[in-house]
Amino acid sequence: PDKIQNQYYRVDFDPETGLMSGIHNLEKNISLPLTQSFYWYNASIGNEESSQPSGAYIFRPNNSSPLPVSQHSRSYLVQNSLVQEVYQNFSSWCSQVVRLYKDQRYVELEWTVGPIPIGDGCGKEVISLIDTKLQTGGVFYTDSNGRQIMQRRRDSRETWKLNQTEPVAGNYYPVNSRIYIKDKYTQLSVLTDRSQGGSSIRDGSLELMVHRRLLYDDNRGVGEPLLENGFFGEGIVVRGRHLLLLDHVEEAADAHRTLALQQYMSPQVVLSYGDGIPYSQE
Amino acid sequence: QSNSTVMRRAMGVAQHHDAVTGTAKQPVNNDYTLRLSQGWDSCQVVISNSLSSLTGIKENFAFCNLLNISVCHVTETANNFKVFLYNPLGRSITWNVRLPVNGHAYKVIGPNDETIPSEVVDVSDFTKELRLYQGRAERELIFQGQIPAMGFSSFTVGKLSLPDRFVFKSKKGKKQ
């Protein structure tokens, strides 16, 4: 597949790598070249600078550069009138569906990650990373329980002079419902369906941690590594959604606030065989 | 008897900082999960009673908690079923419904007896693999439902038999 499109959005794919290569808000005539893929940070087990390993409390990768789960994805397209989907398979434990429903003013990414393999002896902290050319000047935004949006500046704190010793973890922030980056004209917002950690480690990039599986305790009290084994001892699988919105800066809040509320208070689906009997409270 | 207190208690326990951040020991996390699950089971009775009052029909309501991996006993096994969508928002919305099914085509009737456009797509191999032995749906039924503000819509879904031109005939003349 090279693209999917509805009346509001178009998503382009690189035919060689199978990865997303751009999104377009057709209604507002905004285009943003980007790449999106899954990477993992190799969890630190302690080094010369600090013996602190990555664990339940502490996120501490042993390198600032995440490793790609795969350089490309095997993809196929499902195209109907109500929904268009590109299924991307990155590895045996990482896949994603890029989805556009009819009349839908956002792009849906449904990711499935796990069980994270640990046979190589490496703890892994898996992220979904979006890279764009937006000139963000080290600034990104995360929400605080879906209420106040906080401006975050890379390698900086608002009220004291920071000596940054952890270039990745020191720039991670809680994301309860959304994270966004913007330049003067364009804003890319990502809504989450659960609380995650997120950051913008480089200008124009945006990342969210979707899953982690670690081999060592971080010596902060829990006394065991973050190593959920699941039913068969191979680790657990998580499936979640990220919703992408591309908009003009001054109009973006209208879209992401409305959609985030709809995600947070989403409709309840109830089913029945339809063989009920008449009922009244009397 | 319905009671939302079980969920309120579970939510109260889950305010502990270890529950919020996931830094508890694994058996403690399992206990948080169990309490929330029991709370949700209890709330399902509350919702069922409410829906019975609102619709005037006492149904055997089902809440498919594994819809995210395309598992739902009702929709997988029944030829006809009803779908209720409750919208807690203060504005009407359109919601995309995806239900695991085994038929090839379905007719969806909306709250005003109108036919709602629907499609059936295959469940991905990845989903089939990860749901293990829990569900057997080969396909998913997709339709878009309009739901009023702070209210509900009900949809009736019926399996369609394929027209004859889609049914292969073997050399022996038996329909397959």
Brief sketch in words of this structure:
The complex is a heterodimer of chains A (282) and B (176). Helices cover 6% and strands 45% of the residues of chain A. Chain A contains one helix and 20 strands.
Descriptive terms for the model:
heterodimer; A: 282 residues; mainly beta; 9-stranded antiparallel β-sheet; 20 strands; 6% helix; B: 176 residues; alpha+beta; 4-stranded antiparallel β-sheet; 3-stranded antiparallel β-sheet; 5 helices; 8 strands; 31% helix; globular
Describe the structure.
Chain A has 282 residues and is mainly beta. In chain A, 6% of the residues lie in helices and 45% in strands. Chain A has one helix at residues 249-264, and strands at 3-5, 9-13, 20-25, 30-42, 67-68, 74-79, 83-91, 94-101, 107-113, 124-132, 139-144, 148-153, 173-175, 178-182, 186-192, 196-199, 205-213, 238-248, 268-272, 277-278. In chain A, strands 1, 2, 3, 4, 5, 10, 13, 16 and 17 form a nine-stranded antiparallel sheet that branches. In chain A, strand 2 (9-13) and strand 3 form a beta hairpin. Chain A is globular. Chain A starts with a strand and ends with a strand. The model of chain A has no long low-confidence stretch (mean pLDDT 94). Chain B has five helices and eight strands, in the order H-H-H-E-H-E-E-E-E-E-H-E-E. Chain B has helices at 5-13, 17-21, 26-55, 73-77, 125-130, and strands at 57-58, 80-87, 93-101, 106-109, 115-116, 118-122, 139-147, 151-159. In chain B, helix 1 (5-13) runs antiparallel to helix 3 (26-55). Chain B starts with a helix and ends in a 17-residue tail after the last strand. By secondary structure, chain B is of the alpha+beta class. In chain B, strand 4 (106-109) and strand 5 form a beta hairpin. Classes of the chains: A mainly beta (282), B alpha+beta (176).
